[in-house]
Design brief:
Layout lengths: L9 E7 L6 H14 L4 E7 H4 L6 H15 L6 E5 L4 H10 L5 H6 L1 H10 L7 H4 L1 H11 L4 E3 L5 H18 L8 E3 L29 H10 L19 H9 L3 H13 L4 H27 L2 H7 L5 H6 L11
Parallel strand pairs: 1-2, 2-3, 4-5
Helix pairs in contact: 3-13, 3-14, 4-8, 8-9, 10-13, 11-13
The chain binds tryptophan (TRP).
Length: 328
């Protein structure tokens, strides 16, 4: 595979190193990454620099997220995992790209708009935060990536990246950069267990990949369903019912899920039965991941060594690696 890998389409995606990964990350992107790593040249960026625009334990989470990648099945022989802060070329490119983006356009980016709201910045927006879409455009284009597996919330960032790409190509008079395509899964965004749009540790509505059996049981028990479905005999609503959204995302038996939905809608199916099914599905899904996380936690040296942005393979791909401070 390695001999022909130069011709494979390139994937670049990544995660802010702010919180350990959870089921929302799995559905939004990790699942695609595991599936595509053999047929694409894949790079994963531990986005610790972007994490500085957020809050959280940036440094400790670099190790945690690298561990999460390996536990869900990212194979370091197939995927190159790299650390954003160790690639100075990304910062340099960001500075250059700043000239191709206006503040007004950044403020109109729907993801940025939501985040400004959620954080209550008002007009006191940190400049580094406002400009992180520019940095993300640098990440994507420096690797010449054409495919970016991300959750739905990241789509406006890829759109903005492509605007920068088109501006630069126009300015250069030739297509120096390829446009990127956001790869968004069927269930593009997994809601939190409380039904809120976004799963996040800080909202206390997330199921982390490391969840214990008890935590999984408790999370499913607390999960938001249809508030008007009081008696089992009442007709229930499937849309907006988190339990069904999760079944759609994780239950491989689509026919059984459709059958449950029909019975729930008609009336006569209690929440506890649907929840029991989901709990079984999630327990079976997370048990092997949790075991891998435990095993990897005993060998942090191995995990850090895997974050090897200076490998020959990576270096031949992009000169971003040539001056990686980690590999010098
Ligand atoms: N914005 C992504 C997140 O919040 C992280 C990220 C940084 C990223 N650079 C990227 C995603 C490039 C896709 C492509 O987790």
């Amino acid at each position: 595979m390695h001999n022909s890998s130069a011709t494979l389409p390139v994937i670049l995606t990544g995660d802010r190193t702010t919180e350990p990964l959870h089921l929302g990350h799995y559905v939004g992107s990790l699942k695609n990454r595991v599936a595509l790593q053999t047929t694409h040249r894949q790079y994963l960026l531990l986005a610790d620099t972007q994490a500085l625009t957020d809050n959280g334990r940036v440094r400790a989470n670099v190790l945690e997220i690298a561990t999460d990648y390996l536990a869900v099945g990212i194979n370091p022989n197939e995927t190159t995992i790299c650390l954003q802060s160790h690639l100075p070329a990304l910062a340099e490119l960001t500075l250059l790209y700043m000239n191709f983006v206006t503040v007004a356009r950044l403020e109109r980016n729907p993801t940025i708009k939501d985040e400004i709201q959620a954080r209550g910045f008002g007009r006191d927006i940190p400049a580094g935060f406002l400009c992180y879409p520019v940095a993300q455009a640098a990440d994507i284009t420096d690797f010449k990536a054409t495919i970016v597996p991300v959750g739905e919330d990241q789509a406006p960032l890829i759109e903005q990246t492509n605007e920068v790409v088109r501006r630069i190509n126009r300015q250069a008079g030739v297509d120096v950069l390829p446009e990127a395509h956001a790869l968004i899964p069927r269930v593009g965004r997994l809601p939190g267990i409380d039904g809120k749009a976004k799963m996040s540790k800080s909202q206390d509505n997330a199921i982390p990949l490391s969840a214990t059996a008890d935590e999984i049981r408790e999370a499913v028990r607390r999960m938001f369903t249809d508030p008007n479905h009081i008696k089992a005999s009442d007709p229930g609503r499937v849309e907006g019912n988190v339990v069904f959204t999760y079944l759609d995302a994780f239950d491989e038996d689509r026919i059984a899920v459709e059958d449950l939905k029909a019975r729930y809608t008609r009336g006569g199916l209690g929440d506890s039965i649907v929840k029991k099914r989901l709990e079984d599905v999630l327990q079976a899904f997370l048990a092997p991941i949790r075991d891998s996380l435990r095993a990897l936690a005993r060998d942090p040296g191995y995990v850090l060594q895997v974050v090897k942005c200076g490998t020959a393979r990576a270096r031949e791909m992009t000169d971003a690696f040539a001056r990686c401070s980690r590999c010098a």
